[in-house]
Amino acid sequence: MRDTEFCRTLEIEGTLLELWVEHRWLVPDEQAGIRTFHEADLARGRLILDLVGPMGVNEHGVDVAMQLLDQVHSLRGKLGALMEAIRTQDQEVQRRILDRALDRR
């Protein structure tokens, strides 16, 4: 979706969207100067609205929250890749990894 549809869906002004993009709270796809937003961007936008609205979080707090969200997303991807790599190992290696992981708790 383009800027206008994004703003209409979230009921925000274009200037607010520009602020969010400037802060890199949203990073839309861009080709030939045309930005495209996806469902994940809408979810992030709704979160930002909740943070600054009912929760009363300031810009710095939103920066921190969005950075943490991005880190969690990245970690989930890395853990998924690690789990897939472990699944490709033979049963004995999988068991040893699991035993080692459980011993560290």
Structure description:
Pfam families: MerR_2 (PF13591). This is Chaperone modulatory protein CbpM. With 105 residues, the chain is mainly alpha-helical. The protein has one domain (3-103): Orthogonal Bundle (Multidrug-efflux Transporter Regulator, Chain: A, Domain 2). 70% of the residues lie in helices and 6% in strands. It has 5 helices and 2 strands. The chain has a two-stranded antiparallel sheet with strand order 1-2. The longest helix has 29 residues, at 59-87. The N and C termini lie far apart (45 Å). The mean pLDDT is 95.
Major sheet size, sense and barrel closure = 2 strands, antiparallel
- Strand order across the largest sheet: 1-2
Secondary structural class: mainly alpha
Would you give the CATH topology? Multidrug-efflux Transporter Regulator, Chain: A, Domain 2
Percentage of residues in helical conformation: 55-70%
- The counted number of beta strands is 2
Q: How many distinct folded domains? A: 1
Q: What would you call the shape?
A: elongated
SSE pattern: HHEEHHH
**Contiguous uncertain segments of 5+ residues:** none
The CATH class designation is Mainly Alpha
End-to-end CA span: 45 Å
Rg to the nearest angstrom? 20 Å
